[in-house]
Amino acid sequence: MKLLSKKDKKTEQEKVDERREEVLAQGRKFKYPLQWTKHRIVISTVLIAFVVIAVLIVGGWLALYRFNMTDDLLFRVTKILPVSVATVDSEPVRFSDYLMLYRSSITSIERQSGQVDNDASIDVLRAQYRRAALTEAEKYTYAVKLAHENDITVSDEDVETEFERHLHIGGIERSEESFIKIVEDNFGLSKSEYKRMLYLTLLKAKVEEKVDKEAEEIANKVEKMLAENGNNYTAVAEAMGDKIVYEETGGYVSAQNIDGGRASEAIKLEPGKQSGKFVSINGDGYYFVKLIAKTDTEVNFVSIKVPFTEFETQFENLKNDEKISEFIEPGENEGD
Q1: What is the 3-state secondary structure (H, E, C) of the chain?
Q2: pLDDT recorded at residue 334
Q3: Domain assignments of the chain as residue spans, ordered by start
Q4: Average pLDDT of 138-160?
Q5: CA angle at residue 67 from 64 to 69, to 5 degrees?
Q6: Which residues have C-beta within 8 Å of that of residue 296, sequence separation ≥ 6?
Q7: Residue 285, beta-bridge partner list
Q8: CATH no. for 82-210
Q9: With 80 as the cut, is the pLDDT of residue 65 above it?
Q10: CA distance 217 to 232
């Protein structure tokens, strides 16, 4: 009788399991090399991504800080990324604010470049506008810093009210769509960018009024002198000298005249009457207005202005104390 080997004694299930293991073993020969290939692909992809990001960062740095480029793409990027163009008393100046101010100044010039004598003239203008825009952005940044320190705020409602006022500047009724089209064509700004400018302007005006105690004292003195001498503006102007600015229209001007709000205030008065002290719409000082005569649409008046000076003095002191650091040379290179 023939003896059965151990191998012959295997059950059908054991044979099936054994065959499955053989098949899986063959498959592993292909699986592990494929896993290694995927691993290398992931590493390569990550490395390529890092290289691309590094190139973009270096390229962006060169475009902004070395070549002074101001095109649309970079402007959009700076609105997203918190990059600084300077610091004022350790407060970062937003690159997007600088570009916004520069573009709002140079756009109309560039679109009329055919009227400029040559390319050299345009380059000079661009350098001048870049310098002015950087200084203005620095002043706005300092205003923001002082606003935080003095709990001064500008609400969305304040900005919206000022935006609505701009829709009717000059007594012209404009739709929002037509006004934004004018802003885009002449200043290269969108609605949100224009509102950003309004916000900064309103905030700086509030700060200038808050910090200028001397201007407030002079304005109160002017108010008292006018009350004591029968609203004789000429006499007060002579007494106050260069501390105030005295102006006469010399005839009729439009009640919608863009003059800091003096004409619009004058039209509310009766001849011979004067306004109380009020802050200029431009936020650059206090005004007093006395109406001489008016029609339905025009006014003839005299005015006294007490300018704000303290903010500018503080800003100049920061420059003299080397507390303003700039990361670009706005008068050099042109990469538009």
Answers
A1: CCCCCCCCCCCHHHHHHHHHHHHHHHHHHHHHHHHHHHHHHHHHHHHHHHHHHHHHHHHHHHHHHHCCCCCHHHHHHHHHCCCEEEEECCEEEEHHHHHHHHHHHHHHHHHCHHHCCCHHHHHHHHHHHHHHHHHHHHHHHHHHHHHHHCCCCCCHHHHHHHHHHHHCHHHCCCCHHHHHHHHHHHHCCCHHHHHHHHHHHHHHHHHHHHHCHHHHHHHHHHHHHHHHCCCCHHHHHHHHHHHCEEEECCCCEECCCCCCCHHHHHCCCCCCCECCCEECCCCCEEEEEEEEEECCCEEEEEEEEEECCHHHHHHHHHHHCCCEEECCCCCCCCCC
A2: 46
A3: 21-67, 82-210, 214-315
A4: 96
A5: 55
A6: none
A7: 307
A8: 1.10.4030
A9: no
A10: 19
Pair 251, 193: CB distance under 8 Å: no
Please say whether the beta carbons of 69 and 335 come within 8 A.
yes
Q: Which amino acid is at 33?
A: P
Per residue in 118-134, pLDDT (tens digit) is 566 777 888 899 999 99
Q: Which two tokens stand for residue 195?
A: 């509102």
